[in-house]
Here is the input.
Amino acid sequence: MNVLTRASFLLVLIAPLFLSVTPLAAKAAELEVSGWIPYWASAKGIKEAQKHLDTLDEINPFAYSVTSTGALADTAKVSGSSWKRLIRATMREDVRVVPTVMWSDRANMERILMNPSLRAAHVKHVAEMVEDGDFDGVDIDYENKSAATRPYFSLFLKELDTALKGKMLACTIEARTPPDSVYRTVPATIEYANDFKEINKYCDRVRIMAYDQQTADWKLNEANPKPYAPLSDKAWVKKVMDLAAKDISKDKLVMGIPTYGHEYEITVNPTGPMGYKKLWSLNPVYATDTAKKERATASRAPHGEMRLAYVPKTSAAYKSKAKVPSGTSKADQPIELAKAHVKATGKPAVVNVMWWHDAGAIKEKVQLAQSLGIRGVAIFKIDGGADQKMWDVLP
Here is the structure.
């Protein structure tokens, strides 16, 4: 980052100490927009991000992984020429570059974060990466932590915040569903892997991964027609963000919004609940192509996402003569056919269902973020595979 850009960025950071209204404060009211560019599709992600820098306040190269020694590996090859061209463009557009360090190796995370000398060495690796790359900060995405790691992860954030010398420390953390929506009888003690209050002390942005909900919320599971395994029901996301806001300042809170989807194999059983088997993640174009191939109809689910159901050729219900209830919509006919076949034969049958986020679902999440008064939204992911109309609905 050039001197003028860095000076402007620092001025924005310190201005709230002297002014009641600042450009950054106004920007926060309009929502900041950031997006992760994944290492597995960096070429397409770089191209898409560069076309939309006028919409983005920040890009997050989903770039660095952590080795078993605590050192960093440049998985996305951020030092390459394509990334350098994008970073030069971000300077012209005054867009922050805050790379993500991701880590999910629980055993090594515990071993390194719990050991003061190993933790200090890891802090140094991260801080040097930010300094050497002249980045605006770092985004820490350490998932799959144990509850035992909680105090040491907080210490790591405290030490890293100091080592960054004023540069941004962003923290990406898993969504936390309210206990009474997870447990029918809430335990007296619940041990979490993240200490929200400590995270609030040291992180300048806290990105909540408000997706991959699936069956996390038993209340919503019971309230919605089956099958039901969404990425992020609007009602669930509101619960998650409201809970986080009890301990994390809204000026720091960022709502993660997915741009992808999942396909499930749903087994309709004669007795008992449906069985859910997640097959894979998908981009929206895969869903629309499948709709054409299977002559199926996509529809918007009540919770805001798109949904597509079809009976695969391998299902016992594929050539079933069972009758679906009159008035069943075309979109719901595959599900109702599987149910009718099971009722008629007493044997299980399979139906495949996809849920995904298109521009309409993303727009609803943006509107929810605005209504909650939080800092911003973060798009996962920018890789050329999202519904491209999303760029028209982002603030």
